[in-house]
Amino acid sequence: MSRAARARAPVRLPRERRERDILTAARAVFCERGYADAGVAEIAARARVVEGTLYKYFESKRVLLERVLEGWYESLLADYAEHLPGIRGTRARLRYILWRHLRTVRDDTPLARLVFLEVRAHDDYPTSPLHALNRRYTGLLGGVLAEGVAAGELRADVPARVVRDMVYGGLEHLSWRHLTGRGRLDIDREADDMLRLLWGGIARPEAAPPQAAGTPLEAQLRRLEQAADRLEAASRDAR
Amino acid sequence: MSRAARARAPVRLPRERRERDILTAARAVFCERGYADAGVAEIAARARVVEGTLYKYFESKRVLLERVLEGWYESLLADYAEHLPGIRGTRARLRYILWRHLRTVRDDTPLARLVFLEVRAHDDYPTSPLHALNRRYTGLLGGVLAEGVAAGELRADVPARVVRDMVYGGLEHLSWRHLTGRGRLDIDREADDMLRLLWGGIARPEAAPPQAAGTPLEAQLRRLEQAADRLEAASRDAR
Amino acid sequence: MSRAARARAPVRLPRERRERDILTAARAVFCERGYADAGVAEIAARARVVEGTLYKYFESKRVLLERVLEGWYESLLADYAEHLPGIRGTRARLRYILWRHLRTVRDDTPLARLVFLEVRAHDDYPTSPLHALNRRYTGLLGGVLAEGVAAGELRADVPARVVRDMVYGGLEHLSWRHLTGRGRLDIDREADDMLRLLWGGIARPEAAPPQAAGTPLEAQLRRLEQAADRLEAASRDAR
Amino acid sequence: MSRAARARAPVRLPRERRERDILTAARAVFCERGYADAGVAEIAARARVVEGTLYKYFESKRVLLERVLEGWYESLLADYAEHLPGIRGTRARLRYILWRHLRTVRDDTPLARLVFLEVRAHDDYPTSPLHALNRRYTGLLGGVLAEGVAAGELRADVPARVVRDMVYGGLEHLSWRHLTGRGRLDIDREADDMLRLLWGGIARPEAAPPQAAGTPLEAQLRRLEQAADRLEAASRDAR
DNA sequence: AATGAATGAGTCTTCATTCAT
DNA sequence: TATGAATGAAGACTCATTCAT
Fold it and tell me: Residue ranges of the alpha helices (H) in chain B?
C-alpha cells in the first residue's frame, strides 16, 4: 500500500459527470458488499476520485446510499408510469404490478436487499425522500385498487392497507428465498399464484354483477375473457 | 498476563445462572442498540462479568446473538404448542396464528427487528439453527392449512407457499410501521382484516352457489370459468 | 463452549503420574504450536486436568516449557553417556557426535526448534538449568577434542570454542533447511561432509612430519613459521 | 467515526519522509522489545503518528518488521558490494566476510536477533523477499569459494553448502554469546580463529607439494608468507 | 475543483493466572 | 488434592471524515 504509484495530475470533469461516476461506483460497491462492508475508499477508487473529492459531492456515506437508492426508485417509477396506463382491467393491472416488482427483485437483487436491510430500519427513514418514494411506489397499488373499487370490480370494503402489506410483504418474503440463494425465481408463476389468492379476497363477489357495468352476462363474459387470457399465459409458460 | 492485584473476590455463580445472566444482558443490549452498535463490553458489564468471562460462555458476539434469538424462538414455539391445539376450526386457528404473531411483534419489537435485519441476510442463515426454527415456526401455518384442506374447509388447491409468504410477509410489513414508530398496532383489527382478505382467497367457495344460482346461462359460464382455472392450474403443474 | 459436558468426579492420581501426564501433554502441544501459540488450556485438557491443577504442579507456562526441554536434554545426555564411551578414536567419536546430533534434529525437529527460538533468547537463559545442560551437552565435544589433543591426534592449538561454535552452529543451520521443510536430511552424508571439513582444520598434520623431516633448512623454516604464529597470537593478546 | 474535534492540525509530511520516520521508529522499538512485545501503538507514537496513519503506510505489523529487516539487509549487501571487490586473495576475502559479518552482529545485535528468532521460523519465510536477500547474502561466500577453487587456492571438492552452514552457523553461535550478554565480541580474533580452522579444511593441501607444484621447500615458503600476512593483519588491527 | 495525508476513537477477542470451594 | 469460574489487561486493526495545500 505504501508502494502505490504516485498520482497523476488531477482530472477536471464536469460536475454532473463526476457525480454520476461516483454514484455508479457506489452502487456497484454497495451491491457487492452491502452497506456496512462497503468502504468509502473503495468507492472513491472505483470512481477514479480521491476520498476528499467524494465528500465534496456527497456529504456522507449514508447520503450516498440514499442517492443511489433514490435513483433506482425513480427509474422504477418512471417505468411504471410508462407501462401501467396501457393496461386495462383491474386484474391485469394488479398482475402487472406483482410481476414487475418480482422482475425487479430478481434482476436487482442486491439493491432490493439494501432497501430491506439498511434503509428501512434507519431512524429517520419515515422522514426521508426514500420513504416518500416508497409511498409513491406502493401508492400505485393503492390507485389500482381504488379504481377497481370504483369500477365495481372490487369489493367496496377492500382494506387497501392490508392488501398493500400482504402484497409487498408477500413479495418480499418470496424474494428472500431468492436473495438467500435457494431456488430460481419463476416470476410468472409467482405472480399468478399470488394474484389468484389475492383476487379471491378482494374481488367483488361475482354474484353481484347486477350493479356492475352492463348486464350480468357481459360481466361474466368479461371474466371468461380473462380466464382465457390466463390460459394463454399458462400455455405460453409451458413452452 | 494479569499481574495486577485482583480488585475484589470474583463472584462464583453456577454455570447456568451465569449463562442466563449473560443472555439476558445481551438480549437487552442488542434490543436497545441493534447488533452492530452493541458493544461486547457493555453486555459484559450489564451481566456483571468481565469480557473474558463472557467469552468463556459464548465464543463470539455473533453466537451470542444467535443464542438470544434461538431462545426467543423456542419460547414462542412452546407457546404455540400450548395454545394452538386447543383451538378448533381452521378460521379460528388461522386467526390465532395471525394474532399471536402480531402480539409478539408488538411486544418484542426489537427482537423481531433483529431477526429481520441481522440474521436473515447473513450468509450461513440457510444452514443455521435459527433457520430451522423459523421453518418450524412457519410450518405451523402450513399444518393448519393442510388440515383445513383435509377438512374440506379450504380449497383443495390452496397454494400453501404463497399463503405463507403473504401472511408472514404481510405481517412483517404491517409491523414495520410499528417498528418505525408510527402508530400503535391494533392487533385485533389487523388480524381480522388480514384474515378476511386471506379467507376469501383460500376458503372453499361454499357460500357462493346459493346466492349466485342465477340463470342457466350464467351457471354454464361459471362452470366454464372454473374449468379454465383448473386447466390453467393443470398446465402449470405439468411444467 | 458453553455446552460442554459436565465434569466427572475428580480423579486422584499419584503425584508423579500426574506430573508426567502434564509434561507429556505440554511437550505435544508445544511441539505442535510453538510456545506462544500453545495454550495452557489445551495442555491441561490433554493431560485430563483442569488449569488450576496444572498450576499446582508447575508454577507457570514458561517453567513448563523449561521442564519439557530439560527432560529432553537429559535423555539426550544419557544416550551419549551410554554410547560415546564405547567408541574409540577421535575421528570416530567426532563423527558420532555430529551424527547423533543430526539424528535428534531430524527426529525431534520441533523440540530443537523450541530450544533455538524460545529458550536461548530469553533473558535469564544464561543462569537457567537449561543453559547448564547445554554446556554439558556441548562439553561432550570439548572433551573429545581435548582427548584428541592429548592423544596427539589433533593439533595442540585446536581452538575448542570456535570448533564448538562451528559444529553446533553449522548443524543448526543445516537443520534449518530441514525445519523449514525444504529437503530431507541425509544425516550420514551431512555428518561425513562436515567431519571431513572439520578434520582438515583440526587434525595433526601427521602425514607431513614423517615425510617432511627434510633438510635442516626445511626444519628451520618450519620453526620460523611457528615463531610467526606465536608472534601473531601474542600481538593479538596484547590488544 | 471520529466525531471529536481535531486536537491539533495534523502535520503533513511528504510520503517518503513519513515512511522513513515510521520505519525508523519501528526499527527502534522492535530492537528494544522484540517483535512480540513491540506495540504498534508505541511505534506510532515514536513516529509522531497515530496508529491509523501507520496502517496507511504498512498493512500490518508483520510487514513492518519485514520492511525494517529488508532495509537492513540491503544496506549490508550494498556495503559488501562496495568493499569485497577491492580485496584480493581467497583467504583475505574469506576473512573479510567473516569479519564483516561479526562486525554487523556486534553492532546491530538486536536486528540480527530479529532475523534469527522472528523471521526465519515463520511459515512463509522460504517464499519471502527476506529469504531471497539472505540467499544473496550467503551467496557472496559461495562466490568467493568458487573463485578460490577456480584459482587453485581451494580444494576442488570443497563442499560449499557445508562450508556455508558452518560459517554462518558458527558465526551465529558465536554471536549468541554476545546477544545473551556475556562477554564482548572480539571480532578480529574470532575471525582469525575461525578462518584458520576453516582454511585447514578447504585449502588445497599444500603438504602435498610432492605432487603439487614445486619442492617441499617452496611449499614451506608459501606457508611462511601466509604467516607473515597474518602478522601484518594482526599488527594493523592493533593500531 | 481536486488532492490525499492524517485522524483517533472504537472493537472484538485472547489467555496466563488466581483462589474460593 | 482437584476444581473451574472468573479475571482484566492488552493488542492489532478499521474507517468515515476533515482540511491544508
Answer: 15-33, 40-46, 51-57, 61-83, 90-107, 109-114, 129-150, 160-179, 187-202, 208-211, 216-238
